[in-house]
Amino acid sequence: MCIACLPRGGFSRREMLKLSALFTAAGALPLLRAAEARAQEPDAPVRIGYLPITDATPLLVAHANGLFEAEGLKAEKPVLLRSWAQVIEAFISGQVNVIHLLSPMTVWARFGSGAPARVVAWNHVSGSALTVSPDISSVADLGGKTVAVPFWYSIHNVVVQNLLRENGLTPVTKKTGTPAANEVNLVVMAPADMPPALATRQVAGYIVAEPFNAVAEAQGIGKILRFTGDVWKDHACCVVFMHERDLDGRPEWSQKVVNAIVKAQLWTRANRAETARLLSKEGPNRYTPHAQAVLDKVLSPPEADTEAYLKSGAIRHADWKEKRIDFQPYPFPSYTEELVRRLKGTLIEGDGAFLAKLDPATAAKELVDDRFVKAALAANGGLPAFGFPDTFTRTEVIAP
Predict the structure, then answer these.
(1) Cβ contact 92:64 at 8 Å
(2) Could you read off the pLDDT of 59-102 as tens digits, one per residue?
(3) For residues 334 and 332, what is the distance between their CA atoms, to the nearest angstrom?
(4) What is the pLDDT of residue 9?
(5) I want to staple 46 with a disulfide (CB 3.0 to 4.6 A). Which of 11, 75, 146, 345 is the partner?
């Protein structure tokens, strides 16, 4: 397979090099200095940066429904960005101050580049899947083939490598040549490029956030082999990331931001079809380029879909009662700790030396600031309002 021939779109080689440079403290330094200059703006409004995926749902719903304004905040129109490189650059430099970010990327941002920022809440749980060509019937069938991931530091990369190893396959990152029968070649690709690459057989599958799995189903070019939430129960995918200068320097402002996001998650759980409309290209704000019908399949899927996924094996743990995407804001420490442990054993291109030095428990405490989300939950029914037990501890369940 010709890796150089893969579609690049919103994730060009230039974007890859930019992110690779940011993967070091030295590379992030110029942006951090730019952020210091912007920090002189004490009354900065809420400035959201997002990718057009369902991971951004609570941030967009909070904006669409005026929840920031209801908290007494000013909020600008969310800025649609086309790649994780753009999201990171805009955030570290201070152009935006509230973002959703892949949970493993926050580990890198905090400990790999030294970004003074912390996770304040989860944005959603589950919401991703491994989508494959119609002729692929099992994970084992991916041997000798190529699978795309959205980024090395992603829950998708962690989960797919876990699935591959459980099925006797070895993840590799080959730039040239063909993977061996017991190998699966992993490549990084922008989510929007994944369905076309699958349709043209440049990849045998991809693992990514919604709605790009639903897009493949709607176009008849692929099928869902496994849902990530059926592998790691109620896992976080994207989390809410904010600057420490806001958390420490503007605690009342920060609390109101988190209040709005928690209320947006509650509203979304109760209004899934309306959320699909709000996010769609048919919606008033056109937050994403996706059709409402595709987003409906993710946010409010028909019961027949669940039955089909149970029959195909895409869902193996029916007793978990996982939704295709769900919303729960509390950042459980056990998840962050287990994520750090698994990242240490995950194949990641670039300099990941910082991971070896991380203690999972210490990393969880330093990465996450949960004071605001705890206060927001207390004012909005607690975790039971989201269908979870009223406790801030849990045991991670991972069962391929």
Answers:
(1) no
(2) 999 999 999 999 999 999 999 998 888 898 898 888 999 999 99
(3) 5
(4) 38
(5) 75
- pTM (2 decimals)? 0.91
Integer Cα distance of 20 and 85 in angstroms? 9
Q: How far apart are CA 283 and CA 65, in angstroms?
A: 13
Alpha helices, DSSP H, located in 313-370: 333-344, 353-356, 360-367
SS3 content of the chain, % helix, strand, coil (to 5): 45, 15, 40
Distance CA 61, CA 267 (A): 8
R_g of the chain computed on alpha carbons? 20
Residue 32's pLDDT is what?
55
Residue 211, preceding peptide bond in cis (omega within 30° of 0) = yes
Closest CA to 7 of 169, 188, 171: 188
Residue by residue, DSSP assigns 178-230 as ---TTEEEEEE--GGGHHHHHHTTS-SEEEEETTHHHHHHHHTS-EEEEEGGG
Residue 307: CB atoms within 10 Å: 11
Q: Distance between CA 186 and CA 234 in Å, rounded?
A: 25
What is the per-residue pLDDT across 6-61, written as a single tens digit (0 to 9) for each? 333 344 455 555 565 655 555 555 555 555 555 556 688 999 999 999 999 999 99
Lowest model confidence (mean pLDDT) among 57-61, 258-262, 351-355, 372-376: 351-355
Which residue(s) pair with 126 in the sheet?
Answer: 325
**Contact (CB, 8 A) for 315 and 309:** yes
**Which residue is associated with the tokens 């002189």?**
40
Distance of CA 247 to the CA centre of its chain: 22
Number of helical H runs and strand E runs in the chain: 18, 13
Backbone angles phi, psi at 5, to 5 degrees: -85, -5
Amino acid at 9: G
The answer to whether the beta carbons of residues 98 and 253 sit under 8 Å apart is no
